[in-house]
């Protein structure tokens, strides 16, 4: 195993040569960019670039347990659907999601529905509308198994997303922990500075609570 510092890319600009321990020199690819910028509607963010798809690699019914039960406001003994889903952009792995969905929210949920779009399934088949999400982001590194699924070396940098989604009745509908490749994903935000309230941007929305990659 190489030292962690050996796994850090020398440069990150697309089109430039980068060196990675154990892999040699190669051309850096452009990162998938998610903008935390105003969209055409309030409480939205523009969709991230690329053709996004999903592949379910684990699907099971388990007990919530104490920690996840607290997150979802259900009993530790309550059943939930646990899904591990690989997210791809233009056919290349970009993120690994671990979803916890209360079984009562979507009884009879199938892997195919998770691949075709969970939020669309909730809206169209269950008449449940995801409305709010509280999400945190922090840096981390990938384990050997996580790195293998994402096609990068062990201990590669990643972004860890922790998200709780609730519906219009403030009922939790999912708790998700996602790992996004640090070499292929970045977030860009726009901030309001002093005077912004007096001279708002023409299309500015006050908050961006959604991520274009969730579905």
Structure description:
The chain is mainly beta and 215 residues long. It contains 4 helices and 10 strands. The protein has helices at 65-72, 111-116, 118-125, 144-150; strands at 17-20, 24-27, 32-36, 52-63, 79-89, 92-102, 130-141, 157-167, 172-181, 185-189. Residues 1-13, 38-45 and 203-212 have low confidence and may be disordered.
Label the structural class: mainly beta
What is the mean pLDDT?
Answer: 81
Strand tally is 10
Question: Helix and strand succession?
Answer: EEEEHEEHHEHEEE
Overall radius of gyration: 19 Å
Helix content: 10-25%
Largest sheet: 6 strands, antiparallel
| Spatial strand sequence of the major β-sheet | 4-5-6-9-8-7
Specify the number of helices. Answer: 4
Distance between the termini: 36 Å
From the spread of the alpha carbons, the general shape counts as globular
Strand residue content: 35-45%
List segments where confidence is low: pLDDT < 50 over at least 5 consecutive residues: 1-13, 38-45, 203-212
């Amino acid at each position: 195993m190489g030292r962690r510092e050996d796994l850090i890319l020398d440069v990150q600009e697309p089109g430039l040569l980068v060196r990675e321990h154990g892999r040699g020199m190669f051309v850096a690819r452009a990162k998938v960019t998610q903008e935390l910028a105003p969209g055409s509607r309030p409480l939205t963010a523009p969709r991230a670039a690329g053709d996004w798809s999903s592949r379910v690699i684990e699907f099971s019914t388990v007990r919530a347990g104490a920690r996840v039960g607290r997150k979802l406001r259900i009993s530790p003994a309550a059943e939930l659907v646990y899904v591990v889903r690989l997210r791809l952009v233009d056919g290349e792995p970009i993120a690994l999601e671990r979803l916890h969905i209360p079984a009562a929210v979507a009884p009879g949920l199938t892997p195919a529905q998770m691949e075709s779009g969970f939020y669309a399934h909730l809206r169209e088949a269950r008449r449940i509308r995801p409305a709010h999400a509280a999400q945190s982001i922090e840096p981390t590194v990938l384990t050997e198994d996580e790195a293998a699924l994402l096609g990068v070396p062990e201990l590669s940098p990643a972004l860890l997303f922790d998200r709780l989604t609730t519906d219009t009745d403030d009922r939790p509908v999912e708790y998700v922990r996602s790992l996004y490749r640090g070499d292929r994903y970045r977030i860009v935000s726009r901030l309001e500075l002093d005077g912004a309230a007096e001279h708002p941007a023409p299309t500015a929305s006050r908050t961006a609570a959604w991520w274009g990659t969730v579905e």
